[in-house]
Amino acid sequence: MTLSYPITSSTEQIELRPRQVEDGLALPRHHKRSSSSSSFVYFKAPPLQTDPIVEETSLPNELYHLASQALPSLLISVVGLVFAGWMMDVFQHWDVFSQVSELFILVPVLLNLKGNLEMNLAARFSTSANLGDLDHPQKRNALIWGNLALIQVQALISGAIAGIFSFFLGIMEHPTVPTTIGESILVITSSMVAATASSFVLGVFMCILIIVSRKMKIDPDNIACPMASSLGDVVTLGILAVCANVLLIYLDSLLGLTLMAGMVFSVPFFARSVWQNKHVKDLLYIGWSPIMVAMLISSFAGLVLERYVEKYKGLAMLTPIVCGLTGNLGSIYASRISTSLHSGTQQDHRVEWVLLLMNVPVQLLFLSVIWLFDMGHLDFTLWFALTYFVVAMICTLIALKMGKSMTLLLWSHGYDPDNYTLPYLTAMIDVICTTLLVVSFSFLTTNGLADMAMNPAEM
């Protein structure tokens, strides 16, 4: 309902409307956050503005801030992604990964799942920060504790589903390989432990990062998602590998089952905390569909990785890096557009091309690092570097286009993009990047441009 107040000194009226109405946008009918829907602005009727994304204007200062803030965060994320790739290159030779091959399927599924939880948190908090919701201590504290409890619920449930799904997918992929109940408990428990532990660590880190960014007048949309993604990969991979290795040692004991039961019984405790928090209460029962669908989509990337990881050297190391960097750039763009839609501000169309160009120095830096340190035992030829660079740029362009179109499509259908876009986007990017990497490795090896085939001594 629109509220109007007559002004004695003028014949005009000042009306109080939600920001989305001011901009000629329909209020999202589903899953709208209370922090956004309670924000109002004054304006003179009738509204003259249109969709800020359709009619974009030139904002050179905004482009400068984007480049100066996002590029350092992307370069920092390269370090995390390179470390994650190196970790995966090492872990693939561990006994637990050799004995329980379902872990290879679980890795992309779990990394995508964890990335979605933290990146959704980053997107929600970035929007809240830009709308000024975090400037009020009482509301800020309620949002922090509510969101930390929420991602624990999401991590525990999604981690269990990811473990179960990956285990049965592995059975379907290798029906002749015998499996045991102990191995199933190992996969599911490792998935849940990695999900819940990394969610707590990264959730606290993201809340602190966004609050500090707000105080330092840095747009969190430009830095939060890359940091969440890259650090999430490192932390989750490390916890998953260590936990799985420990559970393999005590495979015949009740350790795995006890851990699983303890985590299952903790879900109602965290759910009760979320239910009592009015700022995040609605998110307890919505937003599950994109997480589950994204997990299903990313499982195809896991199948590709599991099938070819022992065929091509360097694939285990390059996959999380290419998927991570591409997803980071797409998530920055999607997060910025979502904030623009919530606040009714304008987004420069050149942001897309700035982000694409920013990928050039980042990828060149990565290629230099793996060449200098001879990472992944790659046959580093000029053709390999050129092919990898082309694949990375194609994937990034696809991510940017998909990020924009999906955000606008979800908003037009009444769904909050902060809760829906990133899971779908990162899952599809995982599949695209992994598939294109395998195709490029096959092309290089078949045509004698680079020897990417795994030697029997390296397996």
UniProtKB/TrEMBL annotation:
Protein localization: Membrane
Coiled-coil ranges per UniProt: none
Membrane topology category: Multi-pass membrane protein
Transmembrane keyword on record: yes
GO cellular component, one term: plasma membrane
GO molecular function, one term: monoatomic cation transmembrane transporter activity
Pfam families: MgtE
Keyword Isomerase: no
Family statement: Belongs to the SLC41A transporter family.
Name of the protein in question: SLC41A/MgtE integral membrane domain-containing protein
